[in-house]
Write a structure and sequence with these properties.
alpha/beta; 21% strand; globular
Length: 594
């Protein structure tokens, strides 16, 4: 609403300048002198009476933001607001609430996440065998005509905690004549029943699949139903796909969720052709109200020797590019996860699964030569690579590949990203800044939890506790960004405030645990906000347009229900966004009462 305070300010300005000054006075050269009032363009929107955290070092705090034609016109004090107000200006009174730039999630799977939530058989990662049995049994009953039941998420340590000798036979008891495939919380491993294995042609005589493991019964050699990493490929390839309408619905829900959580930018971390098509349709309908980069899966672009087909890449890149959709990025999966499946590529061996068991240090999906060749080519083509690097060996190999690209191509201006860079050898920490490589961290899923417990059991207590060296990376000058990886990690949503709190506290945001994970690596709230705003915008190639509240930048602004600097750290995860503005347009407004 327009308050009397601002009406009075306008009247005062008019009286002080006088009617003759509104058109300007001629100076000695005959030119018209422009007065301060004339120099101030009228804003489309004024956000007033707030506590504006700008993330601009030159002006950290302000009270008012003027917006015109999608961009920020002015940032300053309430006393200066009236100069930008006209008859048609919408004035939004923030009532003392905190405003700030929109956040950025550099690793999220919105289409995947919402197809799961909307159309699959879902149970929480904490589900017990009885709860899984009940849910799957109900899904089988609810879809009598379905050939397949697809769902998630079983905890990574599910089969360590629960005595289920044959996961395959256990599912057979409740699946009837349907094929069943269930994901774990990492989304890297699968659990299948006999019908699913039969349809995929996986038997006792099936050879191992590179980059994965068909877990087998120790006595018979038959697949026991657990498929790690790429071993699930034969099953995934025969699952009926969702319809175009379902993909479109999932993509639309992803954008709406981003707006609701105050996200100005997101990077889709594994964009499939179906997802790309859905985003392009939304963009053509002007429904993509977020800065979106799609990291296209590199797999369809590779031949059997893992050489890149530049023609296929360019076709996908061109066909799906849009007004708010940037298709100049590719996703590469270098390894798996460092939890119970022990599939992340580590420099040192994992702990044995049981006393006396053989051990190993994980698996690389690409050799050094293959990855270097791929990164050099992508860099030359102007494509940013996001590489899944959950183990410290994968981090090193990927940094080597980026170094090869710098040597071959010079400074391309591209900042390639190492996703989930949680384990980084000390010798490799300074290389991020030296190579202008981005450390993408996953604070949503690495605080003390059952998932981290599983990782510590797999890698050992000492190494397990030294996870996610965020402070060390920042102090070494590395660019650090944050990604949720939703829906992986048994997360219920892409809520960025959970991860932001965890970076500051290094604790479980829901208070479920009292311990902290490598507390020495905790960072300040200011540093965490920098990661989620300016650093994230830079990784989205938008550092000139977004990431801070400054005159000339796009009006990507959020208003919060509480001031982050005036609440306990353990309340940050409860943050509610009352208003989200994208490019000057309001795309989310909280209803009265939440």
């Amino acid at each position: 609403m327009i308050t009397n305070k601002y009406g009075l300010l306008i009247l005062t300005l008019l009286l002080s300048y006088g009617c003759e000054q509104k058109t300007g006075d001629a100076d000695s050269t005959g030119q018209t002198a422009v007065t301060a009032y004339d120099a101030a363009p009228v804003a489309d929107t004024l956000l007033v009476n707030g506590r504006v955290y700008t993330v601009d070092p030159a002006q950290p705090w302000a009270e008012v933001i003027a917006v015109r034609d999608s961009r920020i016109l002015f940032v300053g004090s309430d006393d200066e607001a009236a100069a930008y107000q006209g008859d048609q200006t919408e004035v939004i009174d923030m009532n003392g609430k905190m405003a700030m730039p929109g956040l950025n999630d550099l690793h999220v799977h919105p289409v995947y996440g919402f197809t799961v939530q909307l159309f699959e058989c879902v149970f929480p990662g904490t589900a017990t065998p009885d709860a899984v049995r009940q849910t799957v049994t109900q899904c089988v009953a609810d879809y009598p005509d379905a050939e397949w039941i697809i769902g998630d998420q079983w905890e990574t340590d599910f089969f360590i905690k629960h005595d289920i000798p044959s996961p395959r036979k256990w599912l057979d008891e409740i699946s009837g004549d349907k094929a069943v495939l269930l994901r774990d919380t990492s989304f890297h491993n699968r659990w299948a029943n006999s019908k699913a294995l039969e349809l995929a042609g996986l038997t006792r005589d099936s050879p191992e699949i590179p980059g994965g493991e068909i877990v087998r019964d120790k006595e018979t050699g038959e697949p026991n139903g657990l498929l790690y990493e790429s071993a699930a490929g034969p099953v995934l390839r025969i699952i009926p796909d969702w319809t175009e309408e379902q993909y479109l619905a999932a993509a639309r829900e992803g954008v709406r969720a981003a707006n609701r959580f105050g996200l100005a930018g997101i990077k889709e971390a594994w964009a499939t052709p179906q997802g790309l098509k859905a985003y392009k349709t939304l963009d053509e309908n002007r429904e993509v109200s977020v800065h979106l980069i799609t990291s296209m899966s590199v797999l369809p672009m590779l031949d059997e020797e893992k050489n890149l087909d530049a023609k296929i890449l360019e076709q996908m890149r061109t066909a799906h590019r849009g007004r708010n959709v940037n298709t100049d990025a590719v996703k590469i999966s270098m390894d798996g996860v460092p939890s119970a499946s022990r599939t992340a590529a580590m420099l040192a061996d994992y702990m044995p699964v049981y006393e006396g068991a053989p051990t190993h240090n994980g698996k690389q999906h690409y050799t050094q030569e293959e990855l270097s060749r791929l990164i050099v080519q992508l860099d030359k083509l102007g494509m940013t690579a996001k590489v899944h690097t959950a183990g410290d060996r994968s981090v090193r190999v990927t940094l080597n590949a980026i170094e090869a690209a710098r040597q071959a191509n010079g400074d391309s201006g591209l900042r390639h990203e190492l996703a989930h860079a949680g384990y980084v050898d000390e010798a490799d920490i300074p290389r991020f800044a030296e190579l202008d490589a981005v450390a993408e961290i996953s604070p949503y899923i690495w605080f003390p939890s059952v998932k981290v417990d599983s990782i510590i059991r797999a890698v050992g207590e000492e190494r397990g506790q030294r996870y996610w060296p965020v402070r060390d990376l920042l102090e070494a000058g590395a660019q650090v960004v944050a990604g949720s990886d939703w829906p992986a990690g048994a997360l219920s949503s892409m809520n960025p405030w959970v991860g932001l709190e965890a970076m500051v506290s290094r604790a479980n945001p829901w208070g479920l645990r009292q311990d902290r994970l490598w507390e020495e690596q905790a960072i300040t709230l200011e540093q965490a906000l920098e990661i989620y705003t300016r650093s994230g915008a830079k990784a989205l190639l938008l550092e000139q347009d977004s990431g801070s509240i400054e005159a000339g930048k796009l009006a990507d602004i959020i208003v919060l229900e509480h001031n982050l600097f005036e609440i306990p750290v353990d309340r940050i995860s409860d943050t509610q966004v009352s208003l989200t503005m994208f490019g000057g347009r309001i795309v989310h407004r909280m209803r009265a009462g939440g």
